[in-house]
Specification:
It is built from 6 helices and no strands. By secondary structure, the chain is an all-alpha fold. The chain has a domain of 65 residues. It is globular and about 50 Å long.
Length: 146
């Protein structure tokens, strides 16, 4: 279990560092074009990704060091409602973009003739991976809420 948790943490802590970096970039103004270059510059750099990974690990260590109630529970009670609000904001923004209705129609009207064994296997693998991580996280976060 400890090895599994370490492997999952080593992957998601890097991705969380990316998220912190992009949040900072978004708050300070991302360029209209060139989002791919921002991503490539970030992941191919040495110090910037290391810095943001260290920021995330420092925040995580600080929260865990404060204990279950004062650290994890207090943080979850703050961040989970913020996450819900952010999801609503992203949905609202997405459906107001040009071509959003065409995108939704494409997304919600699948071409079942394009489904192959390979694509079905990939979808099932992705679903199990996502559900296993998501269920563990939701159970953990849910245990700290009324």
């Amino acid at each position: 279990m400890i090895l599994t948790a370490f492997i999952i943490m080593s992957y998601y802590s890097v991705v969380a560092g990316w998220a912190i970096h992009y949040s900072v970039e978004s708050a300070t103004g991302l360029p209209e074009e060139g989002h791919a270059e921002v991503f490539i510059d970030h992941i191919t750099g040495m110090w910037l990704p290391t810095f943001y990974h260290a920021v995330f690990m420092g925040l995580t260590a600080g929260i865990v060091a404060m204990g279950v109630v004062k650290g994890i529970q207090r943080t979850v009670k703050l961040l989970m409602p913020i996450l819900f609000i952010l999801i609503l904001v992203v949905i609202g923004r997405a459906v107001t973009l040009d071509g959003a209705m065409e995108g939704l129609e494409f997304y919600l009207s699948p071409e079942l003739g394009d489904v192959t064994i390979e694509s079905l296997n990939a979808a099932i693998g992705q679903a199990f991976f996502t559900l296993s991580l998501g269920m563990g996280i939701i159970i953990t976060y849910g245990s700290y809420l009324k």
